[in-house]
UniProtKB/TrEMBL annotation:
PANTHER family (alphabetical): INTEGRASE_RECOMBINASE HI_1414-RELATED (PTHR30349:SF94), PHAGE INTEGRASE-RELATED (PTHR30349)
InterPro entries named among the record's database cross-references: CB, DNA_brk_join_enz, Integrase-like_cat_sf, Integrase_catalytic, Integrase_recombinase_N, Tyrosine_recombinase_XerCD
The protein, known as: Phage integrase family protein
Residue stretches making up the Core-binding (CB) domain: 59-139
Native organism: mine drainage metagenome
Entry keyword DNA-binding: yes
Length: 282
């Protein structure tokens, strides 16, 4: 049985009660909306299709993103990059929607806004995949009652053409020079050496050099460990790659020289155990 009453605040409050089911309650600004919701709720009960939608109405996408970032993302390969994407989504206006309010139309408008704002199709596809995974996790693991995953029926944008650009003459040299920490040109003897240009992270230049020589991914370079580097055989073993299969990367003479310099530096500081580049993606 459904009852619709007006509260002192002016809102219309609905209560739907049926023996054997928990009472359902919701408030609306208009009486017509309250009565329509009551009819739908009673119809679901009559058909035996009742579900508790309270969690879907009260839990926002932001809250689910936070839980997913805390409980799921750290256990995945490439956790650091995924956490960065999750934090970016938490700042997006779509995260303020309740889960039940995120319809395919809402997702489609968000997709179009991201593309219009300059995001590449491949970037938007990754974001859609992540939002879809988070919502699926909420449905399966948190038992949040939703009519379905709204991302599933949304058309994906074209990923765009693969990049095949190579360095123009002089570009590599300018890039490597920009990665070196050095004193900038200033006026006055007192400030000489105080103004620095480039990067003060000593690992950036050799990391970029190795990336150029091997075409290894960022995550593969950061995860590279000394026990998997064989300078004699001129190879680097990657036991855990993006596609889940191990592979061996041949090392050019320049790559060997870069790694040899890093190895000598590590040995002079007490050993070469652990990561080749003791830094994170952040």
């Amino acid at each position: 049985m459904a009852s619709v009453d007006q509260l002192p605040s002016g809102l219309w409050h609905v209560r739907v009660r049926r023996k054997g089911y928990p009472a359902q309650r919701k408030s609306f600004a208009r009486k017509e909306d309250a009565e329509a919701w009551a009819r739908r709720a009673e119809g679901d009960l009559d058909r035996g299709q009742w579900t508790d939608r309270a969690s879907g109405e009260t839990i926002t996408l932001h809250a689910l993103l936070v839980d997913y970032m805390r409980e799921v993302a750290p256990l995945k390969r490439g956790a650091e990059v995924e956490i960065i994407r999750l934090r970016s989504l938490q700042r997006d206006p779509i995260s303020s929607y309740s889960l039940l309010a995120i319809s395919p139309a809402v997702v489609a408008r968000w997709r179009d806004a991201r593309l219009a704002g300059g995001a590449q199709g491949s970037t938007v596809n990754r974001e859609l995949n992540l939002v879809s995974a988070v919502i699926n996790w909420g449905i399966k693991e948190r038992m949040i009652a939703l009519p379905g995953n709204p991302v599933a029926s949304v058309r994906r944008p074209a990923a765009g053409k693969a990049r095949d650009r190579r360095f123009e003459p002089g570009e590599e040299q300018r890039l490597l020079e920009a990665l070196g920490d050095r004193a900038g040109e200033v006026k006055g003897a007192k400030r000489a050496g105080a103004y620095r240009v480039g990067t003060r992270n000593p690992w950036m230049r050799p990391l970029v050099q190795l990336a150029i020589e091997t075409a290894m991914r960022q995550g593969e370079l950061i995860a590279l460990r000394w026990e998997n580097v064989d300078l004699t055989a001129r190879t680097a073993r990657l036991p855990d790659t993006k596609n889940g299969e191990a592979r061996t990367v041949p090392l050019s003479s320049r790559a060997v020289a870069v790694l040899d310099g890093l190895q000598r530096g590590a040995e002079s500081k007490g050993g070469i155990d652990g990561q080749v580049f003791p830094i994170t993606a952040q």
